[in-house]
Amino acid sequence: MTQIAVLTPDPADPSYASQWPGVLARLTQALALAGAEVVPTAWTDHVDDASGLAAYPLVLATIVWGYHRNHAQWLKACATWQTAGVRIANPASVLGWNSDKRYLQRLAERGAPVPETLWIESATEADVVAAFDTLGAEAIVVKPAVSGGAWRTQRLSRGEPVADLPTGLTMIQPYLDAIESEGETSLLFFGGRFSHAVNKRPVPGDFRIQVQYGGDYRRIDPAPETLAVAERILSMIDEPLLYARVDLAPGADGAWRLMELELIEPDFYLGHDPKSGALFAEAVRAVI
User: Fold this and answer.
1) Quick one: 15 exposed, middle or buried, by C-beta within 10 A (0-12, 13-18, 19+)?
2) Which strands make up the sheet holding 193-201, listed edge to edge?
3) Cα–Cα distance for residue pair 73/56, rounded to 1 Å
4) What's this model's pTM, rounded to 2 decimal places?
């Protein structure tokens, strides 16, 4: 079998130790369909020197969870891999820019339906209080521009005390009430082809849909218009993508809003894929 490398979390970061091995197991099973044997290796072992990745016909960055906690090191690693010509997917350039949520601003300029967003460097309590009026919202979401898994993300209602604000560039958006009633829908694409979709809902009273906060995940068949929105967003990306996850949620008007375009380390939810990752395997086989 062809060996391919899958980049995994920093072994010094225990945050995801109980979660990522299960994701790796599902990836390994799917990649076996492509005749590929997975070799897991921590991304932090290849920041300054890419020689340990040079021999692989494909390197996947699909489980680099926690990179946002050391963003400078992550950007350095991406530059190292790009300069060395590592055969990594998605491309190292994409892994770099997709790690900073300012990419949403660029996609909005291209016509993507991104929620109205305020970008504030080192936001203060006064900035947050003013955001309610600026956005015309009774509830807002405040989070770092570099984040992952709802890290340092908070929902605030008008008049609620403001504390523990993120450092660095902060993004503030109106809170979408539909997150609680209709959830967030993730559409998975492999090699440019739609694979499957999952609806994710938070536990009552919460807004975080991640599984570590009790989020409920269910496979769905998206409506044609939902699929069209996701495909239009993907058409705005110039670089070739092996995989992509488009996260959408309904706005106050019922129209879809782009919450995230996950191109680095999205969970593919292969456990909810009726084809158990067959399209992912086909896309990988086409590359190797």
Assistant:
1) middle
2) 216-220, 193-201, 184-190, 243-250, 256-262
3) 22
4) 0.93
Cα separation, 182 vs 179, in Å, equals 6
Q: Which residues of 211-247 are buried (b: 16+ CB within 10 A; e: fewer)?
A: eeeebebeeeebeeebbebbeebbeebeeebbbbbbb
SS (H, E, C) 215-279: CEEEEECCCHHHHHHHHHHHCCCCCCCCEEEEEEEECCCCCEEEEEEECCCCCCCHHHCCCCCHH
Looking from the CA of 72 toward its CB, the CA atoms found within 13 Å total 1
Which one, of 234, 225, 226, lies nearest residue 261 by Cα? 234
pLDDT in tens, 161-205: 888 888 889 999 999 988 888 889 999 999 999 999 999 988 776
Alpha-carbon gap, residue 120 to 15, rounded angstroms: 28
Instruction: Output the six-digit token pair for 95.
Output: 């892994």
CA distance 140 to 175: 4
- The pLDDT tens digits for 206-263 are 677 777 765 668 999 999 999 999 999 999 999 999 999 999 999 989 999 999 999 9
Closest CA relative to residue 243, chosen from 71, 107, 94, 25: 94
